[in-house]
Structures are given as C-alpha cells and as structure tokens.
Amino acid sequence: MNLTTIMLITAALSVILTIVAFWLPLMNPDAEKLSPYECGFDPLGSARLPFSLRFFLIAILFLLFDLEIALLLPLPWATQLLTPVHTFLWATVVLALLTLGLIYEWTQGGLEWAE
C-alpha cells in the first residue's frame, strides 16, 4: 500500500464515522433529550430547591482523594531521585494524614448518605 491509498482510506473512514456520529443520536429523540436541562431537576419548578449538605461533603471528599492519587502518581519514579527515602517519607505522611481524616469522618457519621 502506498501513502495515497492509506490517506484515502483514512479520509473515507473519518467521513463515514463523522456522518454516523451526527446521524445516530438524532434517531430517537425523547422527552428527556428534548428538555433544556439534563441534570435531573425540573426546569420549570422553583430555582430555590435546597441541596443536601452531605452531597457537597461527599463531592469534596471525592475531589480530595482524587487529588491525592494525582499527587502520588509519580511516586514510583522517586527511586531515581538523590534521596528517595525522603520522598517516600513525605508520601507516607500525606497518606497517614488522609487516612486519619477519613477515619475521623467515618466515625463522626459524615459519610452516611441517609440519616
């Protein structure tokens, strides 16, 4: 196969997939897809609905542990540093603090969704 054939096949496949991607979702429009909001709230109701504070607590805890994973992701490459023991020590301290915080929230009942 030469380069021209590969480029033609790639272009044809791209056009076909683009057409299918635009055509396929329009096949079955229903009331949920046609509503202006897809967040689960009634768009015609009151805008002052109370939120549960537990929802925000769970969301913040999720973000905290998600960021913790992002910070600890480069940890295996710490063995290449001049002092890998210090890096592992600080990572252990961070994990211990997060674990203690999680245990505290758990014992206080902060992770219970329903009371």
Describe what you observe in this structure.
The protein is 61% helix and 0% strand. By secondary structure, the chain is mostly helical. It has a domain at 52-108: Up-down Bundle (Methane Monooxygenase Hydroxylase, Chain G, domain 1), CATH 1.20.58.
- The number of helical runs is 4
Cα(first) to Cα(last) distance is 66 Å
The succession of helices and strands, N to C, reads: HHHH
- Percent in helix: 55-70%
Arithmetic mean pLDDT: 79
How much is the radius of gyration in Å?
25 Å
Mass-distribution shape? flat
Largest sheet: none
InterPro entries: NADH_UbQ/plastoQ_OxRdtase_su3 (IPR000440), NDAH_ubi_oxred_su3_sf (IPR038430)
Family: Belongs to the complex I subunit 3 family.
Protein name: NADH-ubiquinone oxidoreductase chain 3
GO molecular function, one term: NADH dehydrogenase (ubiquinone) activity
Quick tags:
4 helices, 115 residues, 61% helix, Methane Monooxygenase Hydroxylase, Chain G, domain 1, mainly alpha, single chain, 0% strand, flat
Topology:
Blueprint: H1 3-23, H2 31-34, H3 53-72, H4 84-108
Summarize the structure.
It is found in: Mitochondrion membrane. This protein is mainly α. It is built from 4 helices and no strands.
